[in-house]
Specification:
By secondary structure, the protein is mainly beta. Helices cover about 5% and strands about 30% of the residues. It contains one helix and seven strands. The strands form two sheets. Strands 2-1-7-5-6 form a five-stranded mixed beta sheet, with no helix packed on it. Strands 3-4 form a two-stranded antiparallel ribbon. Strand 3 and strand 4 form a beta hairpin. The relative contact order is 0.25.
């Protein structure tokens, strides 16, 4: 869907659904998701429609994923870091208590 316009000078490895993916330090996790062949991050809880990063400013909650075992992480607001694990969120959004 998307691609980087430059070759990064430095990269980190994250694990998306168990597969290693290269990313540029400091970029958002949502930007990395959008570069994948299958860019969606979660199904909707009612109909199961696929959602993907949309607004990229933290307003819409379409980009939620499970990051390092924590559900409902907004990927557009989360910078990548070496070794992070990302899974597509398969359940309803969780709100902090």
């Amino acid at each position: 869907m998307f691609r980087k316009l430059h070759e990064p000078a430095e990269t980190v490895t994250i694990y998306l659904e168990g597969k290693p993916v290269l990313a540029e330090p400091g970029e958002s996790l949502a930007a990395v998701l959008l570069r994948q062949a299958v860019a969606w991050s979660r199904p909707t809880p009612v109909k199961g429609s696929r959602r993907a990063p949309y607004c990229m400013i933290g307003a819409c909650f379409d980009c939620l994923a499970e990051v390092d075992g924590v559900a409902s992480v907004q990927t557009c607001m989360t910078p990548v870091r070496e070794g992070m694990t990302v899974e597509r969120q398969q359940r309803k959004r969780c709100l902090p208590s």
